[in-house]
Amino acid sequence: MRLPALLVEAFAERPCQGNGAAVVRLEEPLGDPELQAVARSLNQSETAFLLRANQQWLLRWFTPTCEVPLCGHATLAALLALGHWGELAAGQQLDLLSRSGPLPVRLDATHPGSGAIELPSSGLQPLDPPQDAQDLLQALLGEAPQAYWTSELGYRVALLSPSAALERLVLPPERLPAPERQGWVLMQALGGEPHPRLMGRPADYQLRFFAPGLGIPEDPVTGSAHALVAPYWQERLGRQQVVGWQCSSRPGGMVCEAASSGMIRLSGTGHLLWDGSLHLPGFGSCPETSGVRAGSSWLALLG
């Protein structure tokens, strides 16, 4: 089996920044063990798999260790891949069907390599900061969180003061408390100058994201995290549109705004790093998923 594949550095305005995501186009459904094996070999924070079925595009995401229900940067990568493969024209919108429901995506008609995706935002739920998380932040940054939340996505979110040295934080994955290992967002307002700039605009806030429980010690730029916290920043700043930055070792960011769908629209750019194909001798239809039959993981995306 030979499959078209590419790697996009998503939410990056220049090469070798942002968050790398592999995108694989399937010609027939593959079983979960095969998808996981490919993602493990490609070894990106996420690999997106696209499958055409019933005139619609189905989308799934796998880290090197597991499937995840939502991934922003790999969705942007999948959108840019469809444009690169000639499956989507500039300015055209479609829905990618995923475990998180239909995700509207659109290629930017005026800026090649750019696009917009819409992700659900489940909202932040206030939580008393767990003592072990407080102790860890106190030890690493010298301060306790100003506010703390959990979410339906499973991520926990800590608000830090603008003076916290978030960019310089070194966080050994093994020190994260168990609940935070499924996704820990550390965020802060940007104070002082200069601010990072994205698509010509200064960033309003920045964050970092750690998820060793998902096989990702640190994710460079995380669309699902920004979609989750953007409503907080919109309300705090009194604006419908805010710019989020991720100050990881591979920095990047996105413009976040409320969409008419009730979801959060994330706009950003991506860089195509490599383009080719995967050679997978011995891979083929899995009896469970052959023909996208009833009860399969793929058919579930069709609703």
Question: How would you summarize what this structure contains?
Answer:
The protein is of the alpha+beta class.
Explain what the structure shows:
It contains four helices and 19 strands. It has 303 residues and is an alpha+beta fold. The chain folds into two domains: 151 residues, Diaminopimelate Epimerase, Chain A, domain 1 (Roll), CATH 3.10.310; 137 residues, Diaminopimelate Epimerase, Chain A, domain 1, CATH 3.10.310. About 3% of the residues have low confidence.
Number of domains: 2
Q: Average pLDDT across residues? A: 93
CATH class of the largest domain: Alpha Beta
| Biggest sheet statistics | 8 strands, mixed, barrel
Number of strands: 19
> Are there runs of 5+ residues with pLDDT below 50, and where?
286-295
Secondary-structure arrangement, i.e. CATH architecture of the largest domain: Roll
CATH topology of the largest domain: Diaminopimelate Epimerase, Chain A, domain 1
Percent range for β-strand residues: 35-45%
Task: Estimate the global geometry from the Cα principal axes.
Answer: globular
Strand order of the largest sheet: 1-2-3-4-6-7-8-19
Secondary structure tally, helices: 4
Spatial extent as radius of gyration: 19 Å
Class derived from helix and strand content? alpha+beta
Element-by-element helix/strand order: EEHEEEHEEEEHEEEEEEEHEEE
